[in-house]
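Retro notes, structure queue

What went well: the backlog is down to a handful. What didn't: a couple of records were mislabeled last round, so from now on we paste the full input next to the output in the thread. Example, using Alkyl transferase from Tortispora caseinolytica NRRL Y-17796:
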Amino acid sequence: MSLGSWISAFPLFQYGNELIQRGLYEVLATGTLPQHIGFIMDGNRRYAKERQVEVKEGHTSGFESLLELLDILYRIKIPMITVYAFSVENFHRPPHEVQAIMELVQRSVVQLCQLGDFADQYDVQVRILGDRSLIPPLVDAAIETAVQRTIKNKTAVLNICFAYTARLDIALSMRSIVKESKEGRFKSPITQQTIEQHMFSKGDPPVDILIRSSGAQRLSDFLLWECNDDTLIAFVDCYWPMFTGFQLFKILLRWSLLYSTKIKRKLIYSDQN
Ligand code: FPP
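Corresponding output:
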């Protein structure tokens, strides 16, 4: 064990750390905050491999890490968070891993939405974005029941992208427009708004910050439509379960500086250089 991790294991250190972090976020919250943040939670398997534990433990640690960050973000009143929990490509992973992620997401969504838990605490509406026909029916039914519990929550939103890719979303949007048009329900010309209104994310604001962990610098078919000219894309060089509130703070700070100075450059952030 390194000296740093030995010191940081002390409860007093952790307490002090948390107090400092809370203070920093309170200061940050006095300025303008982003309305929508997206997360690509990458690196769970490598995290597990390095620790010589099962892959599913890596994903479980990933969920715990997400909970800590959501806690910070909803506390300072960020109204919308979108996370990439499972892409359509992920169905090609070994069956036992696919099953483990399905079970984890089901368990976690039920946990988030149960009475008095996370969604109630922050008045968060939990939504699933993805092709639900690809999700095993029992998992989908359990998630749907849980999600329905939060439907009246209005303060914030948690979008969980599950059986999702951005290109599939756009294709499905086009498909439903064509269907409506054939049924005579749709007469006006197809515009950007038409496509948006048929997407999973309809009505959501554009993404202000897109964060990807694990050092990989690519978008992996996530929120391609919802990101725009003003989106800050942040790549952090650590596995998702190790991504901390301090790292998140630095990215939010960068965003507020760019926002307040209206600089439309430097919209790619990387902690590797
Ligand atoms: C990517 O890391 C992570 C996933 C495919 C799964 C992430 C899912 C969770 C953390 C659960 C979230 C649950 C809810 C309810 C939001 P990877 O497996 O690709 O890791 P690697 O890059 O090291 O291979």
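Agreed that this is the format going forward. Reviewer comment attached to the example: The CA atoms of residues 212 and 243 lie 10 Å apart.
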